[in-house]
Amino acid sequence: MVGTVADLLAAVLLVAGALLSLAAGIGVLRFPDVLDRMHAATKPQTLGVLLLLAGLALRLRSPSDLGMIALVALFQLATAPVAAQMIGRAAYRTGRLDRALLETDEVDGPAPH
Amino acid sequence: MTAGSRTSEPSHGRVKRWRDRLVAYGWLVLVWNLLWGDFSWANLLGGLVVAGVVLVFFPLPPVTFGGRVRAGPLLVLVLSTLGELVAASLRVAALAVLPGHRPHSAIVAVRMRVPSDLNLALTAEVVSLVPGTLVLDVDRDAGTLHVHLLDTHGSRQLAENKERVRVVERRIVRAVGSAAEVRRLGRPAERGT
User: Fold this and answer.
1) What is the tens place of the pLDDT at every residue in A37-87?
2) Domain count for chain A
3) What compartments host this protein (chain B) (predicted)?
4) Are residues B22 and B88 in the same domain?
5) Which residue out of B28, B84, B105, B147 would a mutagenesis test of the A interface target, given it has the greatest number of A Cβ atoms within 10 Å?
6) Which of A6, B61, B74, B86 has the CA that lies 20 to 30 A from B121?
């Protein structure tokens, strides 16, 4: 009984995580410039992976797998923002951004409108 | 800036560095065992060797932990970060999927009230996970985060978003900062650039 409930919950979590990852992918395709795209690549993607991992944990339920899943989740949370920041910084410093989309840029003076 | 130069007694600083190294060593051994999937003597010994090699060849930068962990505020930090991660994900996902939307964005500079390396790093990490904000660059000397805002309109929303970054900082310092750092939060925020 408990196993069935856990399996059901796992299925829901896996589908939700997959949908969020799909939305992240669509965002990366549709957002207009690099910086906007990095938003899509960090938030829904991170939560998507976390939900997938939670689903996996509920389905596998063995201690060794749980340890591995916890590690993946931890490193995902720790590294995704760092990767996004590195890419964002590189894009900003090399001027690969669409200034027409910016309301303001306090680092480099207000954007020309 | 090294850990030693900040403390008045050099021997005290050295003790702290060794404590930091020991914590890192134990953590690496634990990770090694988790990666292999079970705890055994072979994994423990292998982990001790590998962690030692890692620490010798990739020495830690002297970011030392000067505060103390407070359980209540830490729980607040973890729960609110998870909640905001969910909210952020749904919002960005909606922006991505809804047709005909062209997000307006902005880049702002937010000055931190507690410009320690650890606080800058933690705040930058969490800020990238909460709604609509992404850290572009860290000005370590000025203690300033350069933050990219997704989907923002007008100066009022700009101010709100900056305040949100400061709220994240406050939560982090309350959870893991030292007493002196917590006191600095009480001061009025410096005028951001």
Assistant:
1) 888 888 888 889 999 999 999 988 888 888 888 889 988 888 888 888 888
2) 1
3) Cell membrane
4) no
5) B105
6) B86
